[in-house]
TrEMBL record:
Pfam families: SBF. It comes from the Bacteria. GO terms for cellular component: membrane. This is Bile acid:sodium symporter family protein. It comes from Maribellus comscasis. Keywords: Membrane, Transmembrane, Transmembrane helix. It is a multi-pass membrane protein. Its main location: membrane. The keyword Cytoplasm does not apply. It is found in: Membrane. Signal peptide: none annotated.
Amino acid sequence: MREALEVLDNVRLNFSQSGLFALNVTIAFIMFGVALDIKLQHFKDVIMKPKSALVGVLSQFLLLPLVTLAFILILNPTPTVALGMILIASCPGGNISNFMSALAKGNVALSVSLTAVATLAATFMTPVNFAIWGKIYLNQYNASAGAGNYLVPIEIDFFQMVQTVVVLLGIPVVLGVLFSQYLPRFTARIKKPIRQLSIIIFIAFVVILLSANFDHFMKFIHLVFIIVLIHNAIALGTGFSISTLFRLPRVDRRTISLETGIQNSGLALVLMFNPKIFPPELELGGMTIIAAWWGVWHIISGLAISTIWSKKPLTQPATSNG
């Protein structure tokens, strides 16, 4: 497996600086649109009825990186592929998780609350998780591979990552919440078109990225397809398993599964392409291919499981704590 994946390290996706800037703006715009649905009441609801929300945050920010590391140690991929998987697992939920939760007849209020808490938490937890779990993996890899491995020089600028995540997530989310709180009528008029536009723009970026790198994807997709499929299935299964273990109602299990399995791969790509975080001389093709294909696959898998759940009746009341 590792030998077959090594070819990915030399892959360079065609993505200009202007394209990267546009992707940054798009991610910020998407998160602003997501935050328009967030009200201060959602944070109060989490405080008053914390069980489901805490399980969701636990699933997303602790269990998913942990099971990702376990999967990596079993799979034994190349280091760049492994680091890409860890970075994906460290990101908050994707921008379409609320829509999918509604489609799946999940707990939409819980989904929005988790989006609020997880997105704000990600400004700190995404860099911390990547630093912690990435370091654990690199230490293990270098110990088994021997001294002098080419991965030794990889040192991620932690504070630059924090700064980038705060700009892309923290500021847009705070602005969106302020709009929702203090300009409710204006927010009610703009949030639907902004949500629709942000999804269209994000999908367009994925299509443009794929088309600009079509030869790369056609040549190497077979190397990452199964990895992303299994990793995404593990993420969805982690959310469902932990919520079942805590005996949450089925409506909440669906939501937590989707919140854990739908990751913000766009944020991961932005971080990977930031030369102040990952120096350009590093060969990180495996990271970018994994993140780019995840952005496609989690839409497919999320819509599929949401559609299946939408046809299955809920036998338990839609309450947050049973």
